[in-house]
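Q: How would the C-alpha coordinates look for this protein?
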Amino acid sequence: MKNEFENKRILVTGGSGSIGSHIVKNLLQHNPKQIRIFSRDETKQFDLMQKLGDPSGVNLLIGDIRDKDRLNMAMEGIDIVFHAAALKHVLSCEKNPFEAVKTNVHGTQNIIDCALANNIEKVIAISTDKATDPTNVMGCTKLLSEKIMLSSYHYRGKKRTKFSCVRFGNVLWSRGSVLTVWLNQIKKGDLVTVTDENMTRFFMPLRFTVDLVFNAVQHMCDREIFILKMPTVYIKDMAQAMINVYASDFGHKPEDIKIKIIGKKAGERIHEKLLSEEESEYAWDMGSMFIITPVIGTTQEDRSKFSKYYPNAQKITQQSFSTVDQPKLSLRDIEDMLKKEKIIGINL
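A: Here is the predicted structure in C-alpha coordinate form.
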Protein backbone atom coordinates (compact mmCIF):
# COMPACT_ATOMS: atom_id res chain seq x y z
CA MET A 1 0.00 0.00 0.00
CA LYS A 2 1.27 3.45 -0.90
CA ASN A 3 2.06 5.46 2.21
CA GLU A 4 -0.63 8.13 2.30
CA PHE A 5 0.36 9.34 5.76
CA GLU A 6 4.10 10.01 5.73
CA ASN A 7 4.89 13.59 6.82
CA LYS A 8 1.16 14.38 7.01
CA ARG A 9 -0.65 16.08 9.86
CA ILE A 10 -3.63 13.93 10.81
CA LEU A 11 -6.62 14.54 13.08
CA VAL A 12 -8.59 11.63 14.54
CA THR A 13 -11.92 12.59 16.09
CA GLY A 14 -12.98 10.08 18.69
CA GLY A 15 -9.30 9.20 18.73
CA SER A 16 -9.38 7.67 22.21
CA GLY A 17 -12.24 5.30 21.35
CA SER A 18 -11.94 1.70 20.18
CA ILE A 19 -11.61 2.28 16.45
CA GLY A 20 -10.05 5.73 16.76
CA SER A 21 -7.28 4.52 19.08
CA HIS A 22 -6.40 1.66 16.72
CA ILE A 23 -6.29 4.12 13.84
CA VAL A 24 -3.81 6.18 15.88
CA LYS A 25 -1.75 3.11 16.78
CA ASN A 26 -1.49 2.04 13.14
CA LEU A 27 -0.81 5.56 11.87
CA LEU A 28 2.34 5.66 13.99
CA GLN A 29 3.80 2.96 11.74
CA HIS A 30 3.52 5.26 8.70
CA ASN A 31 5.70 8.15 9.93
CA PRO A 32 3.16 10.99 10.01
CA LYS A 33 4.45 14.44 10.94
CA GLN A 34 1.79 14.83 13.62
CA ILE A 35 -1.30 13.06 14.98
CA ARG A 36 -3.93 15.01 16.90
CA ILE A 37 -6.29 12.96 19.06
CA PHE A 38 -9.55 14.87 19.48
CA SER A 39 -11.99 13.51 22.08
CA ARG A 40 -13.90 14.40 25.23
CA ASP A 41 -12.41 12.01 27.81
CA GLU A 42 -9.05 13.00 29.30
CA THR A 43 -8.74 9.67 31.15
CA LYS A 44 -9.11 7.64 27.95
CA GLN A 45 -6.57 9.91 26.30
CA PHE A 46 -4.13 9.40 29.17
CA ASP A 47 -4.62 5.62 29.12
CA LEU A 48 -4.08 5.52 25.35
CA MET A 49 -0.82 7.46 25.57
CA GLN A 50 0.43 5.05 28.24
CA LYS A 51 -0.36 2.07 26.00
CA LEU A 52 1.35 3.71 23.04
CA GLY A 53 4.46 4.53 25.06
CA ASP A 54 3.91 8.30 25.04
CA PRO A 55 5.18 8.78 21.46
CA SER A 56 6.38 12.13 20.20
CA GLY A 57 4.31 13.86 17.57
CA VAL A 58 0.99 12.84 19.17
CA ASN A 59 -1.03 15.72 20.60
CA LEU A 60 -4.02 15.30 22.91
CA LEU A 61 -6.88 17.74 22.30
CA ILE A 62 -9.87 17.82 24.62
CA GLY A 63 -12.97 18.78 22.68
CA ASP A 64 -16.38 17.81 21.36
CA ILE A 65 -17.36 17.75 17.70
CA ARG A 66 -20.50 19.64 18.75
CA ASP A 67 -18.22 22.62 19.50
CA LYS A 68 -17.47 24.07 16.08
CA ASP A 69 -15.02 26.71 17.29
CA ARG A 70 -12.90 24.15 19.14
CA LEU A 71 -13.03 21.77 16.19
CA ASN A 72 -11.95 24.51 13.81
CA MET A 73 -8.90 25.20 15.96
CA ALA A 74 -8.07 21.48 16.04
CA MET A 75 -8.12 21.28 12.23
CA GLU A 76 -5.73 24.13 11.61
CA GLY A 77 -2.85 22.89 9.42
CA ILE A 78 -4.27 19.35 9.14
CA ASP A 79 -4.02 17.29 5.92
CA ILE A 80 -6.23 14.24 6.67
CA VAL A 81 -9.16 13.76 9.05
CA PHE A 82 -10.47 10.44 10.33
CA HIS A 83 -13.92 11.10 11.74
CA ALA A 84 -14.60 8.33 14.28
CA ALA A 85 -16.46 10.30 16.95
CA ALA A 86 -20.10 9.25 17.33
CA LEU A 87 -22.84 8.07 19.63
CA LYS A 88 -22.99 4.45 18.55
CA HIS A 89 -25.14 2.47 20.99
CA VAL A 90 -28.57 1.66 19.59
CA LEU A 91 -30.48 1.62 22.88
CA SER A 92 -28.80 4.78 24.16
CA CYS A 93 -29.70 6.65 20.97
CA GLU A 94 -33.29 5.39 21.17
CA LYS A 95 -33.60 6.86 24.66
CA ASN A 96 -31.64 10.04 23.86
CA PRO A 97 -32.56 10.86 20.25
CA PHE A 98 -31.84 14.60 20.40
CA GLU A 99 -28.36 13.91 21.76
CA ALA A 100 -27.75 11.43 18.92
CA VAL A 101 -28.70 14.11 16.40
CA LYS A 102 -26.45 16.69 18.05
CA THR A 103 -23.40 14.43 17.85
CA ASN A 104 -23.93 12.27 14.78
CA VAL A 105 -25.57 14.87 12.53
CA HIS A 106 -24.71 18.35 13.79
CA GLY A 107 -21.25 17.13 14.78
CA THR A 108 -20.67 15.78 11.27
CA GLN A 109 -21.83 19.07 9.77
CA ASN A 110 -19.21 20.79 11.93
CA ILE A 111 -16.60 18.38 10.57
CA ILE A 112 -17.62 19.31 7.01
CA ASP A 113 -17.65 23.06 7.64
CA CYS A 114 -14.29 23.06 9.43
CA ALA A 115 -12.68 20.79 6.83
CA LEU A 116 -13.71 23.15 4.05
CA ALA A 117 -12.66 26.20 6.03
CA ASN A 118 -9.20 24.69 6.58
CA ASN A 119 -8.87 23.26 3.05
CA ILE A 120 -8.29 19.73 4.38
CA GLU A 121 -7.04 17.24 1.78
CA LYS A 122 -9.12 14.16 2.73
CA VAL A 123 -11.87 13.40 5.24
CA ILE A 124 -13.00 9.83 5.80
CA ALA A 125 -15.87 9.10 8.17
CA ILE A 126 -16.49 5.84 9.99
CA SER A 127 -20.05 4.64 9.50
CA THR A 128 -22.02 1.50 10.32
CA ASP A 129 -24.29 -1.15 8.84
CA LYS A 130 -27.07 0.40 10.96
CA ALA A 131 -27.11 3.21 8.36
CA THR A 132 -28.29 0.81 5.63
CA ASP A 133 -32.11 0.95 5.43
CA PRO A 134 -32.16 2.23 9.04
CA THR A 135 -34.86 1.25 11.53
CA ASN A 136 -33.55 2.98 14.65
CA VAL A 137 -32.43 6.45 15.73
CA MET A 138 -28.72 5.64 15.64
CA GLY A 139 -28.96 4.22 12.12
CA CYS A 140 -30.97 7.20 10.89
CA THR A 141 -28.46 9.69 12.27
CA LYS A 142 -25.54 7.78 10.75
CA LEU A 143 -27.31 7.58 7.37
CA LEU A 144 -27.91 11.32 7.45
CA SER A 145 -24.29 11.93 8.42
CA GLU A 146 -23.23 9.89 5.36
CA LYS A 147 -25.62 11.79 3.10
CA ILE A 148 -24.62 15.30 4.17
CA MET A 149 -20.93 14.46 3.96
CA LEU A 150 -21.20 13.08 0.43
CA SER A 151 -23.46 15.93 -0.71
CA SER A 152 -21.14 18.58 0.70
CA TYR A 153 -19.57 19.07 -2.73
CA HIS A 154 -22.39 21.60 -3.35
CA TYR A 155 -20.59 23.85 -0.86
CA ARG A 156 -17.02 23.03 -1.78
CA GLY A 157 -16.33 25.52 -4.55
CA LYS A 158 -12.64 25.41 -5.47
CA LYS A 159 -11.54 23.80 -2.21
CA ARG A 160 -9.47 20.62 -2.57
CA THR A 161 -11.28 18.72 0.21
CA LYS A 162 -12.51 15.23 -0.63
CA PHE A 163 -15.02 13.35 1.52
CA SER A 164 -15.71 9.62 1.72
CA CYS A 165 -17.25 7.16 4.18
CA VAL A 166 -16.39 3.65 5.32
CA ARG A 167 -19.24 1.41 6.45
CA PHE A 168 -18.88 -1.80 8.44
CA GLY A 169 -20.62 -3.89 11.08
CA ASN A 170 -19.62 -5.10 14.54
CA VAL A 171 -15.96 -5.03 15.48
CA LEU A 172 -14.59 -7.63 17.89
CA TRP A 173 -13.75 -6.14 21.29
CA SER A 174 -14.69 -2.59 20.39
CA ARG A 175 -15.69 -0.60 23.46
CA GLY A 176 -19.24 -1.48 24.52
CA SER A 177 -19.27 -4.68 22.47
CA VAL A 178 -21.59 -7.47 23.58
CA LEU A 179 -18.46 -9.62 23.84
CA THR A 180 -17.39 -7.72 26.95
CA VAL A 181 -20.82 -8.32 28.49
CA TRP A 182 -20.58 -12.03 27.77
CA LEU A 183 -17.03 -12.23 29.07
CA ASN A 184 -18.09 -10.77 32.43
CA GLN A 185 -21.03 -13.20 32.60
CA ILE A 186 -18.73 -16.14 31.83
CA LYS A 187 -16.20 -14.93 34.38
CA LYS A 188 -18.92 -15.04 37.07
CA GLY A 189 -20.31 -18.35 35.82
CA ASP A 190 -23.65 -16.68 35.11
CA LEU A 191 -26.13 -17.31 32.33
CA VAL A 192 -24.98 -15.79 29.04
CA THR A 193 -27.76 -13.55 27.71
CA VAL A 194 -28.65 -13.54 24.01
CA THR A 195 -31.40 -11.32 22.62
CA ASP A 196 -32.74 -13.63 19.88
CA GLU A 197 -31.52 -17.03 18.73
CA ASN A 198 -32.17 -16.12 15.08
CA MET A 199 -30.26 -12.83 15.24
CA THR A 200 -27.35 -12.48 12.82
CA ARG A 201 -24.55 -9.93 12.69
CA PHE A 202 -21.43 -8.97 10.76
CA PHE A 203 -18.25 -9.33 12.82
CA MET A 204 -14.62 -8.54 12.04
CA PRO A 205 -11.39 -8.31 14.10
CA LEU A 206 -10.41 -4.73 14.82
CA ARG A 207 -6.98 -5.01 13.15
CA PHE A 208 -8.53 -5.98 9.81
CA THR A 209 -11.03 -3.15 10.01
CA VAL A 210 -8.32 -0.51 10.43
CA ASP A 211 -6.29 -1.98 7.55
CA LEU A 212 -9.31 -1.68 5.29
CA VAL A 213 -10.01 1.88 6.43
CA PHE A 214 -6.46 2.80 5.41
CA ASN A 215 -7.01 1.04 2.10
CA ALA A 216 -10.07 3.20 1.53
CA VAL A 217 -8.04 6.36 2.18
CA GLN A 218 -5.58 5.27 -0.49
CA HIS A 219 -8.27 4.49 -3.07
CA MET A 220 -10.73 7.34 -2.45
CA CYS A 221 -11.36 9.76 -5.30
CA ASP A 222 -14.29 11.66 -3.83
CA ARG A 223 -17.72 10.93 -2.33
CA GLU A 224 -17.54 7.13 -2.29
CA ILE A 225 -18.89 4.85 0.38
CA PHE A 226 -16.51 1.97 1.04
CA ILE A 227 -18.34 -1.06 2.40
CA LEU A 228 -16.01 -3.48 4.11
CA LYS A 229 -17.05 -7.10 3.68
CA MET A 230 -17.27 -8.90 6.99
CA PRO A 231 -17.92 -12.48 8.12
CA THR A 232 -21.46 -13.26 9.27
CA VAL A 233 -22.44 -15.13 12.43
CA TYR A 234 -25.49 -16.22 14.35
CA ILE A 235 -25.33 -14.31 17.63
CA LYS A 236 -26.21 -17.46 19.55
CA ASP A 237 -23.24 -19.25 17.96
CA MET A 238 -20.98 -16.35 18.88
CA ALA A 239 -22.14 -16.59 22.49
CA GLN A 240 -21.55 -20.35 22.55
CA ALA A 241 -18.10 -19.90 21.05
CA MET A 242 -17.28 -17.36 23.77
CA ILE A 243 -18.29 -19.93 26.40
CA ASN A 244 -16.22 -22.66 24.75
CA VAL A 245 -13.13 -20.47 24.45
CA TYR A 246 -13.19 -18.60 27.77
CA ALA A 247 -15.01 -20.69 30.42
CA SER A 248 -12.01 -22.76 31.42
CA ASP A 249 -9.87 -19.63 31.88
CA PHE A 250 -12.15 -18.65 34.75
CA GLY A 251 -12.36 -22.11 36.30
CA HIS A 252 -15.70 -23.12 34.75
CA LYS A 253 -16.71 -26.01 32.55
CA PRO A 254 -18.21 -24.82 29.24
CA GLU A 255 -21.13 -27.25 29.60
CA ASP A 256 -22.08 -25.67 32.96
CA ILE A 257 -22.68 -22.20 31.46
CA LYS A 258 -26.01 -21.91 29.69
CA ILE A 259 -27.44 -19.40 27.23
CA LYS A 260 -30.61 -17.47 28.10
CA ILE A 261 -32.76 -15.83 25.40
CA ILE A 262 -33.99 -12.44 26.69
CA GLY A 263 -35.58 -10.82 23.60
CA LYS A 264 -34.26 -8.00 21.43
CA LYS A 265 -33.94 -4.48 22.76
CA ALA A 266 -35.71 -1.38 21.49
CA GLY A 267 -34.34 -0.35 18.11
CA GLU A 268 -32.55 -3.64 17.42
CA ARG A 269 -33.28 -5.64 14.30
CA ILE A 270 -32.79 -9.34 13.73
CA HIS A 271 -30.59 -9.04 10.64
CA GLU A 272 -28.26 -6.35 9.30
CA LYS A 273 -27.35 -5.01 5.85
CA LEU A 274 -24.12 -3.50 4.59
CA LEU A 275 -25.44 -2.74 1.10
CA SER A 276 -29.03 -2.05 0.08
CA GLU A 277 -30.72 -3.03 -3.16
CA GLU A 278 -30.98 0.62 -4.23
CA GLU A 279 -27.29 1.23 -3.57
CA SER A 280 -26.23 -1.82 -5.55
CA GLU A 281 -27.01 0.01 -8.82
CA TYR A 282 -23.99 2.23 -8.21
CA ALA A 283 -21.74 -0.29 -6.46
CA TRP A 284 -18.54 -2.05 -7.54
CA ASP A 285 -16.88 -5.13 -6.07
CA MET A 286 -13.21 -4.74 -5.11
CA GLY A 287 -12.84 -8.18 -3.56
CA SER A 288 -12.41 -7.19 0.08
CA MET A 289 -14.89 -4.33 -0.17
CA PHE A 290 -17.71 -2.77 -2.17
CA ILE A 291 -17.49 0.81 -3.39
CA ILE A 292 -20.65 2.85 -3.90
CA THR A 293 -19.81 5.53 -6.43
CA PRO A 294 -21.34 9.03 -6.27
CA VAL A 295 -24.95 9.37 -7.34
CA ILE A 296 -25.72 13.06 -6.89
CA GLY A 297 -23.90 15.43 -9.20
CA THR A 298 -22.67 12.83 -11.70
CA THR A 299 -24.14 11.66 -14.96
CA GLN A 300 -24.50 8.04 -15.96
CA GLU A 301 -21.53 8.52 -18.29
CA ASP A 302 -19.45 9.87 -15.39
CA ARG A 303 -20.35 6.84 -13.30
CA SER A 304 -19.40 4.44 -16.09
CA LYS A 305 -15.98 6.08 -16.29
CA PHE A 306 -15.52 5.62 -12.56
CA SER A 307 -14.07 2.17 -13.16
CA LYS A 308 -10.87 3.75 -14.50
CA TYR A 309 -10.06 4.74 -10.94
CA TYR A 310 -10.60 1.15 -9.81
CA PRO A 311 -9.15 -1.05 -12.59
CA ASN A 312 -9.76 -4.29 -10.65
CA ALA A 313 -13.35 -3.47 -9.74
CA GLN A 314 -16.23 -5.54 -11.07
CA LYS A 315 -19.81 -4.34 -11.35
CA ILE A 316 -21.73 -6.23 -8.71
CA THR A 317 -24.48 -8.64 -9.67
CA GLN A 318 -26.11 -9.15 -6.29
CA GLN A 319 -28.97 -6.96 -5.14
CA SER A 320 -27.90 -6.49 -1.54
CA PHE A 321 -25.37 -7.66 1.02
CA SER A 322 -27.03 -8.71 4.25
CA THR A 323 -26.54 -11.18 7.07
CA VAL A 324 -29.58 -13.06 5.75
CA ASP A 325 -27.94 -13.83 2.41
CA GLN A 326 -24.39 -14.55 3.52
CA PRO A 327 -23.09 -17.94 4.70
CA LYS A 328 -22.60 -18.04 8.45
CA LEU A 329 -19.33 -18.94 10.13
CA SER A 330 -19.36 -22.35 11.80
CA LEU A 331 -18.97 -22.63 15.56
CA ARG A 332 -15.41 -23.88 15.04
CA ASP A 333 -14.57 -20.95 12.76
CA ILE A 334 -15.89 -18.48 15.34
CA GLU A 335 -13.86 -20.16 18.06
CA ASP A 336 -10.73 -19.90 15.91
CA MET A 337 -11.40 -16.21 15.29
CA LEU A 338 -11.87 -15.56 19.01
CA LYS A 339 -8.69 -17.43 19.91
CA LYS A 340 -6.68 -15.26 17.54
CA GLU A 341 -8.13 -12.16 19.22
CA LYS A 342 -8.01 -13.45 22.79
CA ILE A 343 -7.66 -10.61 25.33
CA ILE A 344 -8.67 -12.06 28.71
CA GLY A 345 -8.57 -9.50 31.49
CA ILE A 346 -7.94 -6.42 29.33
CA ASN A 347 -9.79 -3.38 30.71
CA LEU A 348 -12.09 -5.62 32.80
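The two ends are 35 Å apart (CA to CA).

The first helix runs from residue 18 to 27.

Upvote if useful.
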